[in-house]
Amino acid sequence: MEVHAEIDSLKSEIAALRADIGLLQSDHDALYRKVASFEASNKHRNLQRLRPPSRHLPPADDPPLILDSYFDDSIKAYFASEATSVGQKPAQNAPSGDSLVAIQERTRQGAYALLESIHRFGGITAFPINDVLYDSSEDALLGLRFDVLSHSSNAFLPSHYVILRRILLKDQRTHWQVFRYTTPAYISLDACKHHLQDPDESRGLRKFCEHIRDALVATQFKHDTIKHICLLSYTDFGLDTSDAIPLALKEIDLQCRRIVLSLAKYSIELHLTSTAIESVSSTLPEAAAFHLTALLTNATIDTLKTAFSSALIYLREENII
Asked: Coiled-coil stretches, from where to where (predicted)?
């Protein structure tokens, strides 16, 4: 009897520790979001233009320039020329009295904006921040913009930016280094900045950009998959003809590393890597929890629906749900 009493006592302590861990994890996620928000809002605080870019019309045979007046509002203020500072009106290229010229100017600028939007569908776009970018080996800045599509909302997410600065080495070689960025805190730029030292500058820039966007896309894919799973009914999981939705999303962090789902009166906590479920814990009865862990652990993000379908079928057969 004493052994059973000790076992019950240990189970109670384990349950209490799990509850404490859940609270601590919630506090951690809240602080993580605050830090990410603070970093994103302060990256460009000290960024200044070296000098306003010249805005000459391109030759007729060259592709049109993409003017920086079409930057997103999140960074537009940092790249505005002195003529467009607070309290001043931007200079108009067209005479105010000539309506035809004004219409032509707006049409031309609209065409540039449309061209830029088309390029952004590729997910990675670059833009010069000063007009000495390709003429000088020093004091050159290059902007990189990353766009990611959310399939759960069918809309592009707010863009992320990385500003690179070209530096001159002692041996007179040049390479890019990270100057400012608005990427999420979980994107490790240190893990990919070595690409910027590649002797082939174009290849290094391409690998650097692809590394960042791959991480952003992988994280968003996890978010979209989890949200999709939580919209599926019992019919979608192949159980019956009920339109009831068994799973509901309770918590999810920015990196989509920790997810808490509710199932009937139970909760399921998942810990994900970049490609699969790493660990599972739940408040289900002990035998059912063990079986659920076996079914879901190591399931890839691509096969998440199949794994949950098998788990729900088992729980239905055991009359747990």
From this structure: none
Assigned CATH for 231-318: 3.30.390
Region of 183 please: left (phi>0), alpha (psi -120 to 50) or beta: beta
Task: Say which residue the tokens 């302060």 belong to.
Answer: 42
The neighbour count for residue 101, using CB atoms within 10 Å, is: 14
Dist. CA 80–CA 190, nearest whole Å = 29
- State the pTM of this model: 0.61
Length of the chain: 321
Of the candidates 96, 75, 88, 84, which has an alpha carbon nearest to the alpha carbon of residue 55? 84
Q: Which pair of tokens denotes residue 65? A: 């320039």
Quick one: CA dihedral 159, 74, 143, 126, positive or negative? Answer: positive
Where helices occur in the chain by DSSP H, the ranges are: 2-42, 73-76, 99-120, 201-229, 286-296, 304-317
Q: How many Å apart are CA 245 and CA 236, to the nearest integer?
A: 9
**What are the structural domain ranges in the chain?**
120-221, 231-318
Low-confidence ranges of the chain (pLDDT < 50): 46-71, 79-92, 94-97, 132-135
The answer to whether the 120-221 and 231-318 domains have the same CATH topology is no
Task: Say if residues 125 and 145 touch (Cβ distance below 8 Å).
Answer: yes
Is the Cβ–Cβ distance between 209 and 284 less than 8 Å?
no
What is the signed CA dihedral for 219, 222, 224, 227, rounded to 10 degrees?
A: -130
Question: Per-residue pLDDT tens for 252-274?
Answer: 999 999 999 999 899 999 999 98
Q: Return the CATH architecture of domain 120-221.
A: 2-Layer Sandwich (3.30)
